[in-house]
Write the structure tokens for this entry.
Amino acid sequence: MYYISIKKEDWHRSLEKLLTSHDIFVPVKDEYSLDYEPFRLNQADHIAYNLPKPATPLKNFFLPVRENVTSARDKVRPRIIIGVPNCDIEALGLLDEIYLDEAFADPFYRNRRKSTILISSDCFSVNEHCHCTSYGVKPYTTDHADMVLLSDGDEIFLRVISGKGEELVRQLSSASGVSDPVRLRFADERHRETEALLAERNRGLPDYTTTGEIVRKANDHIWVKYASKCVSCGACTTICPTCSCFLLIDKPDFEKVKQTDACQYPGFQRVAGGEDALFELRHRFRNRYMCKYVWRPQKFKSLACTGCGRCIEACIGKISKNELFMELI
Amino acid sequence: MASDTNNIYKPLQATLEEVIEESPLIKTFVLIPDEEFVFKTGQFIELAVDGVGEAPFTPSSSPLVTDRLEVTVMKTGYVTGIMHELKPGAVMGIRGPYGRGYPISEFNGKEVLILGGGCGLAPIRSLLFALEHMKDDLEKVMLCYGSKTPADCIYKPLFSRLNSIDKFEAYRTVDVTDDDWDGPVGVATALLDQVKVKIENSVAVVCGPPIMMKFGTIRLLEMGYRDDQIYLSMEKNMSCGLGKCGHCMMGEFFVCKDGPVFTYREIKHNPEIWK
């Protein structure tokens, strides 16, 4: 891992050149939200680096809402995704475990992963419901992205992590190495500030890495109470960076369309004979918590939540899983 | 480019050679796959009706036969309803085989007690073919099977054939009798009282409707079977078969990948299993 720096203007010119070979997405802020948009040099002023999570979870770049998974594809055009917060980078780790599984790797997911350069960005501020640190997830990454971007005035610093990142650096002609660690002090300060903000805002939240047992033992009344405000709309699963369940739909000529699905929808587990373990809404509601905090951690390396807080923002029933946990502990 | 050979979602095509009517609601589809199809007994496949849908089934034919495949299907929903209308010559899709089947090599030297109900006899028939092939290494194989009525019993000739094989015993019961039936009446678990089995040197296999699986397991435990001697073939909504889509999650397990065959010990901590 090492750092390079480049003038913001030169960085954007370099991106412009890279457009001939890559699709490039950058975080753009307008009066409503922050989200990824295709890079355009003449709109570079609207790019907002180092803000917390864009509205779209990273998974959508790798798992489209709907796609034909039996048709052969041309080679995927290489992509650079810039401004990915660490909560989404960490979430991608869980998706990799499922979709790059040795026995059954998903060829479409694998191709997209291979052809994508992920440039994370350290979060220099927090959103209302950001609570990554209560999951042991930092608001910045030093290992799981290809590079990380830190914007400081008219200068861009890049923390180069992977081989793919190094390759990209070679294409940035006006970049230079950062040998003086004093120049990076601002980053440490920003990290400390962000972590302090998160700690203050999330005082009283449980250490989510240890909540599996609490969820497993939770009395039914907690599920009844919170499920009473749930309408099974599935917004929480749609916006969640780790939820990735899907449905396969058959089309003529044995083609299959893979479409996102969620355990919050009625009939998710119904079998042909009519049995449905998740028939009741409160069971579906509980299922999501059991999946994220009990079952996925048993099966995979981590639990299936990274504290991005999008599900709280998206819920039309105003259900906050943080409130639920505060009541549980 | 994703070539067909490594596309996990792409089915193999198979031609329907024959449709055997087993009972008013159950048919066996004899399929000739376009390529050799190798599976282990107890593993399942996703069988597709072109453009309509697919559903998970455990083949009912012998795992030793790789150029034809039999799948026994109960008409119970949308896809199976359309399957039942198919005629020989139809082309179907097969994905798989998926999951973990019966660990038959671990049955060596043992008595195998099999409890089956309804359409659960389909995977059991495949298992019986495999066990017949290795019968020299087995002590005994006992099948206790129940159907709702005598007419609902599938593979009727199977029972007399099994009883003619050395070391094999087959028992049948029905829930509701008719004029031609002079055998036992009652649930399949009641047949367990008839078999003579050395439990300490035995394994039990249960496959059938959820209610039978539950009470069959309880009865076997009462008889003295340990939880790791009981093999259950779980039925969930296995949709992708690849441990990804989430539809068949049963606690921490993807039934499609970690199962469908589990020992009771592996899954008993999960109250969701009988749902």
Summary: Chain B touches chain A through 48 residues (CB under 8 Å). Chain B has a mean pLDDT of 94. Chain B has two domains: 7-98, 104-233.
